[in-house]
Design brief:
Elements (H helix, E strand, L loop, with lengths): L1 E10 L3 H9 L16 E3 L8 E4 L2 E9 L3 E8 L3 E12 L2 E12 L2 H30 L9 H12 L17
Antiparallel strand pairs: 1-7, 2-3, 3-4, 4-5, 5-6, 6-7
Helix pairs in contact: 2-3
C-alpha cells in the first residue's frame, strides 16, 4: 500500500526560528516532541547519519539541510519502506511547517498501519503541530485526541508496547 500523509501549519516566525524546533529533536532541550508519547532518541546529536527512533519506530537521518529540511529513513518496523520529513517553507511573513510521511507498506505492516498506527501517527503529529504553533505564537494550542487514540494509547501502555527500541549504538541523553 502506498501511504502519503501530510500535516502542516503556518507559523508566523522566521525559517531559522522554526528550525530551532527541529534542531532540538530528541535532545535535552526538546521543544517540538509532545509529552506523553514514547520519547524520540538518537545515538548522537541530530545530524546526517544519526540513528534513533521513538517507540517501536526506528529510523536514521538521511537528509539534513538547516533551516529547511530533515528527512528520516525508516528502519523499523518491518514492512515499512520510506521516510518521514519536516520541511520549513518560507512564505511572506511566515513559514509553512510541514511533516510528510511517504511509505510503501507490505504484508502485516499494512494492517498495522490501518488498524492503529495511522490514528496514533496523526495524533502525535498534530500534537507536534500544536507545540510548534504554541512556540511561534506564545499562545497555547491543544487538539484533543479522539477516543480511538486514547483507547489505543491505554492499550499499548498496558501491553508495554512503545518503549524506545535500541539504536545501532548506545543512545546519549546529553547534547
Amino acid at each position: 500500500m502506498n501511504i502519503l500523509n501530510v500535516h502542516k501549519r503556518r507559523l508566523y516566525t522566521s525559517p531559522e526560528d522554526a528550525w530551532r524546533l527541529i534542531a532540538n529533536l530528541g535532545g535535552k532541550h526538546e521543544i517540538l516532541w509532545p509529552r506523553g508519547w514514547p520519547a524520540m532518541r538518537f545515538d548522537r546529536p541530530l545530524g546526517l547519519g544519526a540513528v534513533g527512533g521513538h517507540g517501536p519506530i526506528g529510523y536514521h537521518v538521511e537528509e539534513y539541510s538547516p533551516p529547511g529540511l530533515i528527512r528520516f529513513r525508516f528502519t523499523h518496523p518491518r514492512g515499512f519502506e520510506g521516510y518521514h520529513e519536516f520541511r520549513i517553507e518560507p512564505q511572506i511573513g511566515s513559514v509553512l511547517f510541514r511533516h510528510t510521511l511517504r511509505v510503501r507498506s507490505r504484508g502485516l505492516a499494512t494492517w498495522y498501519w490501518l488498524l492503529g498506527l495511522l490514528a496514533l501517527h496523526d495524533a502525535c503529529v498534530e500534537d507536534m503541530m500544536d507545540r510548534a504553533s504554541s512556540y511561534s505564537s506564545g499562545h497555547e494550542f491543544y487538539t484533543p485526541h479522539p477516543l480511538r487514540v486514547s483507547a489505543l494509547r491505554w492499550l499499548l501502555r498496558r501491553l508495554d508496547v512503545g518503549r524506545a527500541r535500541p539504536a545501532a549504538a548506545p543512545l546519549s541523553t546529553e547534547r
